[in-house]
Design a protein that fits this description.
InterPro entries: ApeI-like (IPR054545), HotDog_dom_sf (IPR029069). Pfam families: ApeI-like. GO terms for molecular function: lyase activity. This is 3-hydroxymyristoyl/3-hydroxydecanoyl-(Acyl carrier protein) dehydratase. There is one protein chain. With about 110 residues, this protein is an alpha+beta fold. It has a single domain, classed as Thiol Ester Dehydrase, Chain A (Roll), CATH 3.10.129. A hairpin with a 2-residue loop joins β4 and β5. The longest helix is centred in the middle third of the chain and has 13 residues. The mean pLDDT is about 95.
C-alpha cells in the first residue's frame, strides 16, 4: 500500500434553527452526536467519493452548543485497495469536543 495519507480541514457550525434542537434538549440545546457525525462524514465526502462502512470509535468530549464553530482535522489513510480509515478530531476554540475513526470504502469499489 503505497498511497500516502492525506489531511483535510473543515469547519462546521450547527445553526440554532436546526430541527434537532427542538427535542435535544428544550431550554438547554446541545448538538446531538449523530448530527456531529453526519457533518464529519459530509466534510469527508465533499473531498472523496466514498461511503461509511463503520464507526470504529468515537468520543464526545465536550458538549457542542448551537452556533458553536468546530474546526475539523481529518486524516485519511489507506488500509486496503479501496478501504480507508479517517481519523478525525473536532476543536472548539482549541478544545477537543469530538474525536473518532471512520472506516470508509470508495464508491467505485462498492459496485
Amino acid at each position: 500500500m503505497n498511497t500516502p495519507a492525506h489531511t483535510l480541514q473543515a469547519q462546521l457550525r450547527i445553526p440554532a434553527a436546526h430541527p434537532a434542537f427542538a427535542g435535544h434538549f428544550p431550554g438547554n440545546p446541545i448538538v446531538p452526536g449523530v448530527v456531529l457525525l453526519d457533518h464529519v462524514l459530509q466534510a469527508i465526502q465533499a473531498h472523496r467519493n466514498c461511503r461509511l462502512l463503520s464507526i470504529a470509535s468515537v468520543k464526545f468530549l465536550q458538549p457542542v452548543l448551537p452556533d458553536d464553530v468546530v474546526d475539523l482535522e481529518i486524516r485519511i489513510s489507506p488500509v486496503a485497495a479501496a478501504e480507508h480509515r479517517a481519523h478525525f478530531r473536532g476543536l472548539r476554540a482549541a478544545t477537543a469536543v469530538i474525536e473518532g475513526v471512520f472506516t470508509l470504502q470508495d464508491n467505485e469499489a462498492a459496485s
